[in-house]
Write a structure and sequence with these properties.
about 0% strand; about 80% helix; mainly alpha; about 290 residues
């Protein structure tokens, strides 16, 4: 019994009554591979809120030690817990969407390369279940490998028809391009069309799209590098020089050395990390 099932067992009635508040994230739960129903997920949030209630007592005691006023301590603890509870609710509500977006990006990053490999396999005459089984054995294709293993399992172990297994996977993937690819494969298999020809056309289309993304990323990277050099590198040097000159002219500024030390040891690394994250989020491939 997992956390969601256990929570739902305890808060079954409450969850059935109020889980409609989370109905908007039902599709995100499906696409993010979170194996909870909306009611189980809502119950998990309620359980987490209850588990976090001891924070009220801990914060009350800590605040009472500082201010020696019980009323202020209780009010402060309630405000603190309200913020914690709001954070937990927001986290549970937003997490499936963020997870689905992360999966979508990993799929989009590997899709171009995976389709080229699928085209090669289809050219050897491999049937769909074998194509997906082989594709699923390569971890290099990230989420696409996981999807392929599920399709292969549904066909070979559960006895599903290839078209049915592909449809099931298409409904759960958060990537529009992956959906389009799978629905097209299903239509081609069902109609008895040329799967290699279809995959060849998709590979060409995805290659053009990937090339366009690389060109856009190159432009974004050039702009970010200019900003980084101008603001972070040149700006930091300029601030250090100006503050040093001002200190010499004014006969010394209290705390200047400490301020410069903070700028060099904390400010520069922090700004560098921000720019690295910006570059990573803009990249069309895993970095």
């Amino acid at each position: 019994m997992n956390y969601g099932e256990f929570s739902y067992k305890l808060f079954h009635d409450f969850s059935k009554k109020y889980s409609y508040l989370f109905k908007d994230i039902q599709e995100d739960l499906l696409e993010s591979n979170i194996k909870y129903s909306v009611q189980e997920y809502f119950a998990s949030m309620v359980m987490t809120l209850i588990i976090s209630t001891p924070l009220i007592a801990v914060f009350t005691i800590g605040l009472f030690i500082l201010v020696s006023d019980l009323l202020i301590s209780i009010i402060g603890a309630l405000i603190f817990y309200s913020l914690v509870a709001a954070g937990i609710i927001a986290l549970f509500y937003l997490y499936p969407s963020q997870q689905a977006s992360s999966i979508e990006k990993r799929i989009e990053n590997a899709l171009h390369f995976a389709v080229i490999y699928m085209e090669t396999l289809a050219g050897t005459g491999a049937p769909p279940h074998l194509l997906f089984r082989i594709l699923g054995s390569f971890e290099e294709f990230s989420e696409i490998s996981k999807i392929s293993r599920k399709i292969s399992r549904d066909i070979e172990i559960f006895g599903m028809d290839p078209a049915e297994a592909i449809s099931k996977a298409a409904e759960k993937t958060p990537s529009p391009n992956m959906k389009e690819l799978l629905w097209g494969m299903k239509a081609t298999i069902t109609s008895g069309g040329d799967l290699k020809l279809y995959l060849s056309e998709k590979a060409r289309a995805f290659a053009n799209d990937y090339r366009r993304k690389l060109e856009e990323f190159t432009q974004i990277l050039a702009v970010l590098l200019e900003i980084y050099i101008t603001i972070v590198i040149v700006g930091s040097v300029l601030i250090l020089v100006l503050t040093t000159i001002m200190s010499l002219l004014s006969g010394g500024i209290a705390g200047l050395a400490e301020l410069q030390l903070v700028l060099v040891t904390i400010g520069l690394p922090f700004m560098s990390v921000i720019f690295i994250l910006l570059i990573k989020s803009s990249s069309p491939s895993e970095v």
